[in-house]
Write a structure and sequence with these properties.
This protein is of the alpha/beta class and about 300 residues long. About 50% of the residues lie in helices and about 10% in strands. The protein is built from 15 helices and 6 strands. The mean pLDDT is about 90.
Length: about 300
Amino acid sequence: MIEAVLKNTDTLIGKESLEKKLKAAKPLKVKLGVDPTRPDLTFGHLVVFNKLRQFQELGHEANLIIGDFTTLIGDPSGRSSTRPVLTKETIKKNADTYLEQAYKILDKEKTKVHYNSDWFDSMQFEDCLKLARKMTVARMLERDDFSKRFESNAPISIVEFLYPLIQGYDSLILDTDVEIGGTDQLFNMLVGRALQKDAGKSEQAVITMPLLVGLDGTKKMSKSMDNYIAFTDTPKDMFGKIMSIDDETMWIYYKLLLEHEDTSINSLKREHPMQAKKSLAKTLVSRFYADEIANNELIQFEQVFSKNK
């Protein structure tokens, strides 16, 4: 079973413990946290949602954390500057759309949804100080993004130092067995392990997923880079954006978004790249809309671009 869990992953921390838990045949608590900083999920999120859905299919408990409290800080991962502060009203509105979109991938009946404001809103300042004592400034500066900002004299807010602790505290509260996230979340997830160990609890396994490249084929898919495909894109826009990617990016999408095996991808590479890309676009649009709609977009695309109509 560990081989299935490791499919398309980048890093696994706590492998030995995870193998023991899997062999015990007891449902594991698997956690994925998302911060509703924008109203739309992107295909970058689809990579980790695929993994959470896989755990559901294997009989484990999927815990989706809506970081409505952590969004007030803003995740500093991969950032060269402090994120802008959002209002609670904006965060709530974004969070509502996140759930609607997430259930296009996840089994709603098998998904436990938590808002981390449920436990953080009731915390006193003294509780915050106790949590802050669990981590040193030196340890925080081990983070690549923090160290780069420190060396370049770029401002680092004290509250940003708290973000990994707050994310880690979610794991402590839920007694998480496994946490999944992008490679840029590794430090934050390791903090969760440290807090669990300090509390005398079993440490969660940490699984990181590769960061999906955007439409430009080089940088991480991001709304700020305008190189993204959103869950809520119209079928026409979604199909067109997929058709705009280069061939190398196409194979990455087949692997991370459609979860094709290498043998399947190698077989597809024997086809004409345009045909393989049309198949990719049609399949992905079908995941978010009806097959009939996806097929219609394929026909429309062929008429406009292939037949010059």
